[in-house]
Sequence to fold (420 residues):
Amino acid sequence: MTRQYKAPRGTQDILPADQPWWDYVRDTAARLAREFGYAQIETPVFEEAPLFTRGVGEVTDIVQKEMYVFQDRGGTDLALRPEGTAPVCRAYLEHGMHSLPQPVRLWYITPIFRYDRPQAGRYRQHHQFGVEAIGEAGAAVDAEVIELLWRLCGELGLTGQTLHLNSIGDQNCRPAYLEMLRGYYRDKLSGVCEDCRARFERNPLRLLDCKQEICRPVIAVAPPIADHLCDECARHFADLCSYLDAAGIPFALNPRLVRGLDYYTRTVFEVQPREEGGQSSLGGGGRYDGLIEQLGGKPTPGIGFGSGIERIVINLKRQEAPLPDARPLQVYVVVQTPAARVPAFRLASDLRRAGVSAVAGSSERSLKAQMRHADALGAVYAAILGERELAEGTVALKHLADGTQETVALAEVAERVGPA
RNA sequence: GUGGGCGUAGUGUAGCGGUUAACACGCCAGGUUGUGGCCCUGGAGAUCGUGGGUUCAAAUCCCAUCGUCCACCCCA
Fold:
């Protein structure tokens, strides 16, 4: 009669079997971020909704149809975080981080919510590792941030990924380019998909990354934005490329890469895995020199990226990347006689206190059952407490892999089984 | 938002008009005297996603609905 509860559509439980992969990715990301001089930040899971509508852009799909918005009991419009950059910029402003040494380098790992139709590698709740460098306009930070994302993939053991790079200009050169692009499209609108006709009006830059078959030939000969940057943007882009070359990071110039958040300026980039699927992108980001001002701050440049942990894990599994050894359970304490219940519990407790992982078996179960259990849990040792051991203050310590067994004083178990 | 595939024990599957709904793995217990892995035996566990319909008879056919997966779209 009672209904079966399930995780809501598009969400998933990350079960113990998957945790080693998650730990691996999280630990590697955190280590790398610190190595690059980034400090961790955590922002709330929800924010005032206008932060995103204004920051990310009213006409983006994320804002128009993918945000989880709700009112709290006080009537405030809130939104579950649909992306990571705007909240960090809000925190930068709110806490006066402009008075810290610039740029302020921050990283985070956080859940992201988007009301999307779920499919492979796409969820309504997913997790992003992201990085933001705020307060520095020079192309070296762009290269640094890109290097961090690139290194993450490499450190994790992913192979065959490609870095796509483009520049989409700034306030000075983009308007003129968009006019040129419109001019180019104007007489071709009849030969282009329906979405693109809408894009022509609303968001012409997006014409360039339409995937429809009909639009491909039109895009192929469209004027690339990289050829129409103003001097400063062109200079910035050229600098970035030389920094990347210097760091030995291979990149592919992709004139069709524009990305879907309105706040991007100049640099945009994306890392695609070896095996490309529908939505494969492992991570992407770009420069957002106008965002902080948009949010009410003084003009402040910034750059960052977000990378999807679920997708990274999917690719690690697909590529059969090796995982660092998981730490096995060290000791399973076998309760052989009812009289040993308390001493067995005590032994397990003492072991844990000494930093040795241990679980106590149940006196309800037979010796045989407990031994099986110890084996099934992958314990390294079984510590058996029976009448004899109880009388002597010892345990029978059996190494399960090779079957050897010895009698050890209770007080010495920890050091006997401990690492070394 | 649009299109397609699939929903049978915890997991993976078989059955495709009439069966006590099967098998494997997993789980629990036992295989006499204090010891796991292999093996053997037994047990628990499924109103066959849900609701309608067709039929003497439905897990099997039809419809709807929900869920899920995949593609478009969008993005991480």
